[in-house]
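Lab notebook, bench 4. We co-purified these components, and the gel suggests they stay together. Before we commit to crystallization screens, I want a quick structural picture of the whole thing.
Request: model the full complex, all chains together.
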Amino acid sequence: EIVLTQSPATLSLSPGERATLSCRASQSVGSYLAWYQQKPGQAPRLLIYDASYRATGIPARFSGSGSGTDFTLTISSLEPEDLAVYFCQQGSNWPWAFGQGTKVEIK
Amino acid sequence: EVQLVESGGDMVQPGGPLRLSCAASGFTFRNYAMHWVRQAPGKGLEHVSAISSNGGSTSYGNSVKGRFTISRDNSKNTLYLQMGDLRAEDTAVYYCARFTVNSLDYWGQGTLVTVSS
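Here is the predicted assembly.
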C-alpha cells in the first residue's frame, strides 16, 4: 500500500509570496498524482491531475511538477482566497491514497 | 452544470446498517466511474470505494472491505453505498465524486454519518 507524506504540515505566508508544497510517495506512482484544495466547510476541489495538468478553471498561479516519488505544488503568488488545506492523491495503485494535507495560512 | 448530491447520512448505532445515495446530474452518468471518499471530523481524506461506469468492477479500501458495498443504477443516475457493521471509526462526512484521468474532478457536498450509541 502506497503512503503519501506531505510537508510542511502548515505553511504561513503573506499575500504575494510563493508557496511550495511537497508530496512524497513511498514508492513510484509515475505521474499519477493529483492535488486538491479544500477550503473550510467545503468539499475538495481538483487543482492538478497527472502531476502537472491544471484542472478546468484553475488559475495559472497553481502549478504542479514531479514524477516517480517526489511532487510539488506551487502557488506562484498567494491570494487571500488560497487559505485552505491542500491534499495530494495517488491514482497509480489500488487502494488509492491521500496525503495528510498541508494547511496554508495567510499572514 | 455537473451536480452530485449525497443523501442518507444519519446517526446510527454501532453494528447497524445505513445506505447512502448520490444523485448525479449535468453529465452522462453511465459513462463515468464513480468513487466514495470520506473525511472524519477534523481529519484528512480517506478513499472508501470505487465502481466502474457499467458497475461491473468494484474496489474497496482495506478498512471497509467486507462491510461496505458500492453499487449504481444508471437508469436513475444514482450511486449508492451500502454500509454494514458500522463502527465508531466510520464516523465521517462521505463524499461521492466523479472519476477522470486518475483523479476526481467533481465532488458532492457530502453527507454526515455518525456512529454512536
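Chain B touches chain A at residues 37, 44-47, 50, 59-62, 95, 100-110 (CB under 8 Å). Worth comparing against the SEC data before the next meeting. The first strand of chain B starts at residue 3 and ends at 7.
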